[in-house]
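Hey, can you fold this one?
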Amino acid sequence: MAKATTKKSPMAKLRRNLFVACRQREQNAHNIWLVYSARTKREWVLRSDLQYLHFLDIEFAPDVRQFDLAPIPQKTTLLGTTETIEFDAIVEFRDGHTECREVSGRNAEDENEDSVRIGRLHAAAETLHASYVRITAETLEANRQRIQNSLRMLRFLSAARCSSLTEARNAVLTCLSTQRYGLALHELSARISEVPEALVCAAAFQLLQHGRVAMDVNESPLTGMTSVSRVS
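Sure. Predicted structure:
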């Protein structure tokens, strides 16, 4: 007879996170977002508009390798008191460093901030060999263009969620391998005529997430003229 197990399925965890977010919303009038991340290939429950914007900011950030938007709470002891700390995100970067992030409407330089609480956040991050970082509305405003581009790219990848992009990715990399300065997105699609244009775009955006191609998604609006180049 099979033994009973307490391990929860991914869907059960998602439902639990959604219920928790709904209970918290009763006390704070925040929107709740259920989003699909093409980078992590899973859905996340986000508890505010600011968390949603933060998700869009890191989903296609070229320097981000991976992230967790529902990290396991960390216990930390400071001044003889043990407390559970919950970060909003843990972000791993391609250069090897990791950030434990708090997404907050409170300014990072708030003079009324509880110094003991800040100390606990830093201590909890250190247990994960990471640094504590607070993300505010001002932080995200500086990345407005990338967030707008991320929303557009995510629509392509969400539409291609049930399609295999292997052929399209290989075709994009092969096509770019002979282009010293890259190609505009519309030119890339035209040269790979055997693959639907939407899948070529989705493949290019996925390769951006993998760090295999480069695009200017931070400063300029995403258009058919956006240059795509292979990363050596």
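Residues 10-141 form a domain with the Trna Endonuclease; Chain: A, domain 1 fold (CATH 3.40.1350.10). Let me know if you want another pass with a different chain boundary.
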